[in-house]
Amino acid sequence: MHKKVLLIIGTIFLSLGLIAGIIAGGFWIRRQRIVSNAVPVTATIVDITSSRDADGYNVRRVYVEYDTGGRLFNTRLNWSSTSMRVGQGVDLLVDRDDPTRFISAGFMGWFPVFLPSIFFVTFGGVGAILLFIQWRINARSRWLYDFGTPVWANVLGIDDNWNITVNGRPAQVIIATYGNMQFRSGPLDNNDLMNVGQHVKVLIDPNNANRYAFDLHNESYLMPHEDPQEIPQNMAPNTN
């Protein structure tokens, strides 16, 4: 499990949202081009067929006939409804310059825009939120790297975090202690895991011991020969 799991998932969701937004924009532009040069026409359903495709799914085809510019056109709709019946009227917007191009004058005319727009809002929104959370985590970590009080905590073991799984396997976190304080890391890469009894550098907020970050860089695995830095006496202990 990568340490920046929120960054990865957030980027994927945001990318899918942006792709859906581009698709929605393309359909909206196409719709506007037709609407800007369209004439309203009421077509008549002349035939409805039903057959199964290669995968065994039932495919319903609706054929309509409409007159525009003194010419009669017979074509198939690219949508259908179980409520449609032969002889029923269907409101269309037909391109004046190319009467074979048309869209529904009702909701189905907006459906190709509406559906990807939902994906744009949901996936894009979730992705943006996850990236914002990751940015906040990174900002806090950068502050702790600059101003945090470093201590060398004793590794008690590795715990499983079933809230985050990859291929059915849980994420793993380091559990370490320093004095009466206990620390839990975030999800780790396998090369960041340590053995019981080793020491890992933890950076603690001087004003709030409940805020801390594991420093797994800058030779963090090498505990210095000098004694670990003492925690200021006025710091509230973390007894998690």
What's the number of structural domains?
2
Round the mean pLDDT to the nearest integer and report it. Answer: 81
Succession of helices and strands:
HEEEEEHEEEEE
Structure summary, number of beta strands:
10
Largest sheet: 5 strands, antiparallel
Distance between the termini: 24 Å
Strand order of the largest sheet: 3-2-1-4-5
Percent range of helical residues: 25-40%
- Shape field: elongated
The residue ranges in which pLDDT falls below 50 over 5 or more consecutive positions are none
Q: What's the gyration radius in Å?
A: 31 Å
**Number of separate helices:** 2
- What structural class should be given to the helix and strand makeup? alpha+beta
Give the strand content: 35-45%
